[in-house]
Amino acid sequence: MAARTCHSKRMKTLAWIPVAALVLTGCAPLSIYHKPGVQVSRLEADTTRCEVAALKDVPVNTQIRQGAPIYRPGGRYCRDGRCWTGPGYWDSGPVYTVDANRGLRDRATELCMAEKGYRPVSLPPCSQGIRSQVPLGRMTTLPRLTPASCFLRNEDGSYRIISPVTAPIASQGG
Question: Please, which domain of life does this record's source organism belong to (predicted)?
Answer without folding.
Answer: Bacteria
